[in-house]
Amino acid sequence: MRIYLSEDYKAMSRRAANIISAQVITKPDSVLGLATGGTPVGAYQQLVEWYKKGDLSFAEIKTVNLDEYLGLSPHHEQSYRYFMQVNLFDHIDIKPENTHVLNGLAKDPQAECAAYNQLIRDLGGIDLQLLGMGHNGHIAFNEPGDDFGLETHVVTLTDRTIDANTRFFESRDEVPRHALSMGIKNIMQARRILIVVSGEEKAETVCKAFAGPVTKDVPASVLQLHPDVTLVGDRAALSKLVEAGVPVCG
Ligand code: PGA
C-alpha cells in the first residue's frame, strides 16, 4: 500500500485527481469505479478543470458507481446519480450510456443487484476504484460486521450512517433506510484502489483501518489485503497513522 500525505483538502484532492487522470491517460477506455460523499468532490472539480483546459478526455471511459439509495429517483437531489451528474458527468465529455449507477427505483432490487454484478463482469472488471471511508470505517454502504464475501446487495443503513447523511436532507426522517451497494468482493476485485480521507474526525478510524488488524468491525481494513491500494489523505486524517509510526510519502 502507498500512503500519500497532503497538507490539506485541496492538495489531497489534487493528488487524487492526478492518480485518476494518470489512469485515464494511460488507458483511455478504463472502467472507473466512482464514489459519492463529500470527500471526492474536490478531486472531481480538479478533473473537470483539467478537462476544460483540454488536458483530459473521458470520451472512451466507462464508470460504475458504488451505491445508490433505495427509493430515490435519479432526479432526486440527494440521489447518487444526481450527485454524479452535478459534480462530474455534466461537465465532461463522458458518454451518458457509459455511466452506470444502480437504479434506486428498481422494482426488484435483488435482480438489480445481480444485473449490476453481471454488468461489472461484462465491462471486464474495474480498473481503478475510487473510495471514500465513513467515520465507522464503512466503504460504500458496507457497514461494520458485514460479510467480506458479498457482491452487490441490498443494505439496511446503520443509525450512524443515517445520522451522518442527515445533513444532506431536510430532516432525519427523509434519509432513506435502505440502499443498493457494491459489496466488499466487488471492491476487492478492482485492479487498483484509490481511497481518499480528509479531516481529523476520521483519524482514529484511518489508523484502525490501515495499522490495525483486518476485521469486519472496520470494513476498510480489508483493503490491507489488496495488492494495489493507494491511500491519499490530508494531514489531519492521517495524523494518528503517522503517530503510530506508519511510513507515509509527502
Ligand atoms: P464522506 O463520506 O466523504 O462524505 O465523509 C464517506 C463515506 O461515507 O463513504
From TrEMBL:
This entry's Enzyme Commission designation comes to: 3.5.99.6
Catalytic activity reported: alpha-D-glucosamine 6-phosphate + H2O = beta-D-fructose 6-phosphate + NH4(+)
What biological function has been recorded for the protein in this entry? Catalyzes the reversible isomerization-deamination of glucosamine 6-phosphate (GlcN6P) to form fructose 6-phosphate (Fru6P) and ammonium ion.
Q: What CDD domains does the annotation carry? A: GlcN6P_deaminase (cd01399)
Write out the pathway annotation from the protein's UniProt entry: Amino-sugar metabolism; N-acetylneuraminate degradation; D-fructose 6-phosphate from N-acetylneuraminate: step 5/5
Cite the GO molecular-function annotations of the record.
glucosamine-6-phosphate deaminase activity; identical protein binding
Q: From the UniProt record, report the name of the gene that encodes this protein.
A: nagB
Its name, as the record gives it, is Glucosamine-6-phosphate deaminase
Q: What is the lineage of its organism?
A: Bacteria, Bacillati, Bacillota, Clostridia, Eubacteriales
